[in-house]
Write a structure and sequence with these properties.
Helices cover 43% and strands 15% of the residues. The protein has 255 residues and is an alpha/beta fold. A 7-stranded parallel sheet has the order 3-2-1-4-5-6-7, sandwiched between helices.
């Protein structure tokens, strides 16, 4: 491995790490040498991922958390810091989706999506900031979406939450650049996860999705993990405030 990508000695905290994108990122960070705390609402899932990380001879901590609860977030950060020593890398992946025409959008559904997808990352960033700013080092990776760049019908809550997360990324990158804390985001396109599986359930549905991707195919979740390793490592030391879309070229024509 190129030394700039080596994460040995680093500690990462990945929210929404029990499955899908979060699991792939947590495992790839561990492969690159990081110790990883894995957090999500479902304890059985993070325990399994933590077990897989330990099998890679890395330290790991499973944590149950609701990122929409600031007290829960503070406890998660405190426990992770206490048991693993520090947090160098924060991956804000926890999120939920939802589609509804605005005229029938339930107010509670709106608040749930905004609180999870936007307030959750804000709470997590705020909770880890003191130690990162004091050490004058840190890497924060927010998991956004192509939906944060491209409007879609029935996406008033979800698309808005991700667009706002992109702006939060840029604001914090400016605030914390003097402290050598990099803040970037990844905007995944179509990946097969629990969130998207209903849209990819049949060969016809998958073909329809692949037809809108310039590269004409889906890819493996590991690709997101590899990009996260880059953003978490010294290889990205001069990059901050960026939203990188990993989408097979889908946003290429609009951004």
């Amino acid at each position: 491995m190129l030394r700039e990508f080596d994460l040995t000695g680093s500690t990462a905290l990945v929210t929404g790490g029990g499955r899908g994108i979060g699991r792939a990122i947590a495992l790839t960070l561990a492969e690159a040498g990081a110790d990883v705390a894995v957090a999500a609402r479902t304890m059985s899932q993070v325990e399994q991922v933590s077990k897989e990380i330990k099998a890679l001879n890395r330290r790991s901590l499973p944590v149950q958390v609701d990122v929409a609860d600031p007290q829960d977030v503070a406890a998660m950060v405190s426990r992770t810091t206490s048991e693993l020593g520090k947090i160098d890398i924060l991956v804000n992946n926890a999120g939920i989706s939802g589609k509804s025409p605005l005229i029938s959008l339930d107010t509670n559904a709106w608040h749930q999506i905004i609180e999870t997808n936007l307030s959750g990352p804000l709470y997590c960033c705020r909770a880890v900031a003191p130690q990162m700013l004091e050490r004058r080092y840190g890497r924060i990776i927010n998991i956004s979406s192509t939906s944060g760049a491209m409007p879609s019908a029935d996406g008033a809550a979800y698309n808005t939450s991700k667009a706002a997360l992109n702006m939060l990324t840029k604001v914090l990158s400016l605030e914390w650049a003097p402290y050598n804390v990099g803040v970037n985001a990844i905007g995944p396109g179509w990946f097969k996860t629990e969130m998207s599986k209903a849209s990819l359930a049949t060969p016809d549905q998958r073909a329809k999705v692949e037809s809108i991707i310039p590269l004409g195919r889906l890819t493996d979740l590991r690709d997101l993990g590899l990009l996260a390793v880059f953003l978490a490592s010294a290889a990205s030391q001069w990059m901050t405030g960026q939203v990188i879309y990993l989408d097979g070229g889908e946003t290429g024509a609009v951004l």
